[in-house]
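To whoever picks this up:

The parser on our side crashed when reading a file containing two proteins. I've narrowed it down to the boundary between the first structure block and the second sequence. Both blocks are reproduced below exactly, byte for byte. First block:
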Amino acid sequence: MNKALSNVIQLLELERIEDNIYRGPSHDIGSPQVFGGQVLGQALSAAHCTVDEALIPHSLHAYFLRAGDYNAPIVYEVDRARDGRSFCNRRVVAIQHGRPILNMAASFQKCEEGLEHQSDMPQVPGPEGLSSNIDINRSIIDKVPEKMRRFLAHKPPFEFRPVTPPDFPNPQKREPIKHIWMRAWETLPDNPSLHCNLLAYISDYELLAASTLPHGLRFDRGQVQIASLDHAMWFHRPVCVDQWLLYSIDSPRTSGGRGFSRGQIFTQDGQLVASTAQEGVLRVWDHGK
């Protein structure tokens, strides 16, 4: 299996320490701290370990409390808050070096039929013929500072093909909208929990960055602070992350030192399978003043 994808799957396979207590390793993706999507995916995996296999997650709401250390494992404590006939709820605390780094509530439901409607999928080019982020990053990696090269050189577990390629060396102000095709590098087992956990992991990629697009920010000059504060996600339908998915992201508001973004995830045939929302710190310093 693709090494990057295999590594993330191993991250999501937590070690059971005690009833409702699990431990997961961390990994370095080239950022200064643990990738938030890793903590989300592992927290959801910990919650999955405590519910019946017939239940599927329909939502999660998480707060990032502290930056994580990718050199140390993370312990996940699960509170079985409620077990009902149709729904159950879990509260998860991620702990590292004796302090919580994330709080998350996740709700699970037994599958049932009901009324249906959904938003239309944006009319954008398909993934065929688009360049992948790996090729885009390779073409510009010698044009960015060393501290950015580690991140750009990291190979994620999914292939990303942006409809509008980013231009890190020369960012231009544009609408706070981005569309990205994504899928796991290889075919995965038919395991609904694994696909949901991986989607939670990958949902943190690219999301908050949409709030920077109208401002043409240069991340290579050390003048920008961007960090996730919270993350919400809703799973609408079963999902296969080894098939092409369109992540359609917009940012309706940035103010008060915070950026807000929301996303919709569609299958290639237009089915809306998940929605996301995230707010984060977004500060810019002018070192010339």
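<<boundary where parser fails>>
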Amino acid sequence: MTLIKQKPVRQYVTVLCAALALYTFSCASGALWQDSGLIQYRIWHNDIEGFFGLAVSHPLFYILAIGVKYIPVGEFIYRVNLVSSIAAAVAVANIFLLVRLWLGRNLPALVAALTLAVSHTFWRHASIIETYTLWAALFLAELIMLLQYTRTRRMRYLYWLGLLNGLSIAVHMLASIPLICYAVFITFLLFKKEINIRNLGIIVLLWIFGALPFEYLIVKNIIQTGNLTGTLASAAFGNRWQAAVLNASLSIGMIKDNFLYILLNFPTPNFLLFFVGCFGLFKMSQSRRFRNLVLALTALFFLFAFRYTISDRYAFFIPFYCLVSILIGLGADILLIHKNLKVPRFLVLFFCILPVGIYTVLPTLAKKMQLDIGTRNDMPYRDDYEYFLRPWKTGYEGAEIFANEALDLPDDNAVIYADTTTVGPLLYLQEVKGKRPDAKIVSGIINSKNAPKFDEHSIGQLLEAGPVYVVSPRPGYCPQFVLDHYDFIKKGILWKVVKTEE
């Protein structure tokens, strides 16, 4: 017996191709801001470890992206951006297959797939280079294996589960949350004698094999530093996120923002089907073990993201959105087969794609209302309402235009201090495109080749030797020692640092 019959295979491929077409069209074609720009930089330098600690190294993602870098087709930057798009398409196809296998009907599977495909945060991360879509694809594959095991009791599905979760760990530490659930579930199976020690050993070995890229970095750092505790802390929390990961407090502002994030991703009446699906789970007599795991994962991912305190925590709701989409599919199934409810199918499907229209007009409405969306709003060639509220990035070249213009301005051998938002595109233009190799780009994270030391002790000497520019003279984006002791003169889209007049 194969995993799936021929008809679902054709349906899976159809959904995959449709999602590929959508995300290929919506994918950014050039350099990107912020974390995405730093990801592009790491891929160019074949860096699988990064600079913020092991928890944010995501080595398997970079191994795959670096492999794509060497494919001699098209532009390097577009190829690597497409890694997230392709992974997102696989995730959408996987959620279709999961719900199709679970419920045995196409419509709820299509509803779940469409819901996830056009949810704002997932779609946005499918349009830029990020790690979350690859993790989502693996996570949804794990759920397929769980479902198949609970239905067939065949050990091969648990073996696949161990391998897939190991791979997930090597992509993103979000996989540690389902790992806890799987460990409890497998311990239960061991206690019930449904599996034996040999089976458990194979699962563990496959998990270790899948997680090898991450394990390699851990062992490498232990050997290099001799610090076991510090390395394990880095693997769990990164260099500076332990307080955020372990946070147990909430503020009114966080609660409001979190509900707005959820509303942004499910801005249609179909979201009510999530609650129908949750209610329906408790009424299901089949696949009760799978039901319990879905409930546990939904609660855990919601709680983790809801009280997380980092600035981009909206991205950490993606696992929750995957599960919400599954439950919306279940809710649609319950609603549409209920004999006393006459809900037109086309209406449910219309609500599935309604977010596309909402995201089309949302930036204009937000701009007219002058809504504060919590962004810095001072970046040239980036309308923050459009950039953050519209998930697709078709034809977006703002970061590259900014970097081109910025590098056109400085005098010979100038020093440019860039913040984390802008350093990626500047280094991309300089290193990949060969623009202005004489300019010295410095930041708090990465620098251009042979860049000088940039601190309170060296700034005076740098000013005497030549011009010094900053991208932004705002606190948080410019070193405080520069803000405290120097003035700025606007030069095009950069700011020239000058001595303060007495």
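After patching the parser it read the second block fine. The chain has a mean pLDDT of 92. The chain has two domains: 6-356, 398-499.
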